[in-house]
Amino acid sequence: MLHLAQVKKNPDSGEMELLLLARQTSPDLWDTIANKVISCTIPRGFGDGVLVLVKLGNDHEIVEVKEAKDWIMGLVKTYLTDGAITPEWVQKEQAKVEQWRQEITAKSLDLTRRQLELETQKEQLQELEEKLNNGQE
Predict the structure, then answer these.
(1) pTM for this prediction
(2) What confidence tens digit (pLDDT) does each residue in 84-106 have?
(3) Could you give the strand order of the β-sheet that contains 62-67, starting from the edge strand earlier in sequence?
(4) Mapped to the 3 state alphabet, what secondary structure does the chain carry?
(5) What highest taxon heads this organism's lineage (predicted)?
């Protein structure tokens, strides 16, 4: 999984660590991480305070580390420069939001339908149980 991290020097051991700041959950979505530090061997050239993109394996082993400067500059160019947010870009983002809304609505309707089916089955089982109990008396 891809993470944004800051290289930090541990004041006690002097070893370099990664302070994980955020993790990518989908191509355009990131979640922030609160105070998660991992000790690891960091390639030379990444000094204290440098922001890096790090790909971690399942056991938090480093798969790949690269400087985050180009990635950050891409974000600046895409979202923060004059003219980056155009009416076309806004329309595209609105279309994405609408698609997500429709997907969530469909999932919600499906969950409601399943819940009603389960409630109906529960009532039928209770009625059957009552009939069986009444028949045994």
Answers:
(1) 0.60
(2) 788 888 899 999 999 999 999 99
(3) 29-39, 16-26, 2-9, 51-56, 62-67
(4) CEEEEEEEECCCCCCEEEEEEEEEEECCEEEEEEEEEEECCCCCCCCCCCEEEEEECCCCCEEEEEECHHHHHHHHHHHHCCCCCCHHHHHHHHHHHHHHHHHHHHHHHHHHHHHHHHHHHHHHHHHHHHHHHHHHC
(5) Bacteria
Instruction: Read off the tokens for 100.
Output: 């997500």
**pLDDT tens profile 100-124:** 999 999 999 999 999 999 999 999 9
Amino acid at 39: S
Nearest Cα neighbor of 65 from 49, 42, 39, 47 is 42
Over residues 15-25, the pLDDT tens digits come to 888 899 999 99
Distance in angstroms (rounded) separating the CA atoms of residues 98 and 91: 10
